[in-house]
Hints:
This protein is 18% helix and 33% strand. By secondary structure, it is α/β, with parallel strands linked by helices. The strands form three sheets. A six-stranded antiparallel sheet has the order 4-3-6-1-2-5, with helices on one face.
Amino acid sequence: MNESSFHVVIDAVRDVASGIREFTFRRADGQPFPLYSAGSHVVVSVPAGERPRRNPYSLLGDPNERMSWRIAVRRQEPSRGGSAWLHEQARVGDRLDITAPMNLFPLISTARSHLLVAGGIGVTPILSQARELARRGADFEVHYAWRSPAHAAYVAELEALAPGKVHHYDESQGVRIDFKTLFAGRRLGTHFYICGPTPMVSAAMEGGAAMGWPATNLHSERFASAEPGEPFDVLLARSGQRITVPADLSLLEALEQCGAPVNALCRGGACGQCETPVLSADGELLHHDVYLSDADKQAGKLVMPCVSRFKGACLTLDL
């Protein structure tokens, strides 16, 4: 552990919706956590199997509450081990390591109004943002979509902190967000924030652009998950080292294990910190990030090793 990470103890565990479990952490040394801003996330190291899994999760509690932090974890199907371990094996009293908070999804302080949209587990950063806006007495509203009532986490908490400001969309009843209607007629200075499944986020961002909203007023967060795939070889051009990335390990995790100099923050394909130059690729790059542009992905000169993979004989990186 270093100054940017903490040893924590699981202080409480509870199910908040179907397939979604909440964890409350306290510091193992009994000291208060640092303050964080609404929309922040941490990376949790999970002892799943022989290798720890490092997954990002949004902090959903009150940023002013410094003795405990809360996250919610949706059970992934299939799981590479992280969410499965947290759902099946994690118990109160277990110790974990987590990073200091990072915020890639901050509220814009100069906004005149805030339009918050959550899809499924994407409610977690939206919940923290709504709580902060309510504290400020800011002008905002929340639009929350879910698959069914059984999957609707934190409805009561949202309603309690923002009565009259929360709008619900139950997909099981055929109710979905019409983004064209949602974007229409908003006053100048409104900022839009969305976190949810990639298709939903893409539809929203495209809808906002089509309605003439400036890109600077459209904000999204969508962490991709590292997915298993076929093993492949990687040649590190600077060191001459050649490694094999196994099926159940991400490219970033394999690089970290061999000591390659790769920086990473979100570990979910969103921040761009682990962007790595590709020198050659004897096969196909499988881009799963949400950071690189379509043009960058087609060019094949960059890869985000936290979530992306390769299908072919050998991938050569400038490392």
